[in-house]
Structures are given as C-alpha cells and as structure tokens.
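The instructor's notes for this session suggest beginning with a concrete chain rather than abstract definitions. Hand out the sequence below and ask the class to guess, before any prediction is shown, which regions might be ordered.
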Amino acid sequence: MGEIAAYTLEVARQLAPAISADVSVRQILASEIRRRMNRYELMDRRFRHKYEMSFEEFRERRVVEKQGYGFEVESDYCDWEMAVTGLAALREQLARLGDGGSARNR
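After discussion, reveal the predicted structure:
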C-alpha cells in the first residue's frame, strides 16, 4: 500500500486530533460516512412519506408497474434503492472502521 504524504497526515491530525494518524484518518472517514448516511436517511424518509410505505413494500407491491412505469415513479425507485443499498454499505463500512483495526487486513 502506498504511503500518505506528510502534509496530508498533518492536516488529518489537525482536523481530528488523536493518538495516531491512523485514528485521525479513521475519525475523518467516519465523519464522511455519517454525512453520507444522513443524506441517504433523508432520502429514505422522504420516499417513505411520499409513498406511505417502506422501500421493501414499494418493491413488493410493484408500485412502478401499477403506476404505468412513469418517469417520476421509476426515478424515485432508482433513487430510493440507491439510498437503501447505500445505507447498508455505509453501515458496514462504519462498523469495519470501528472494529479495532482488523478492517485493514481485509
């Protein structure tokens, strides 16, 4: 694995002071993951409110098909699916970052 430039590490340690550069970088990454999770959670809530159901129900009830494959409902489906799958992936990444360092070896 390549090395991180000294200035990059300096900035990371200024942004997230910690006992090591690794911990500083992990804190910054965790903050970015949480920011993205917030965006996806907002999208999920918006669609839940709009359709009055969860994404799973939306898919199982075949709402896109029932609404005639309209642009808006298909677009909502794609965006909602991205939010739901993105949330799952980000939760896993966040958990791996906080697992005591063994994520580095995967």
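Then share the key points. The radius of gyration is 19 Å. The mean pLDDT is 91.
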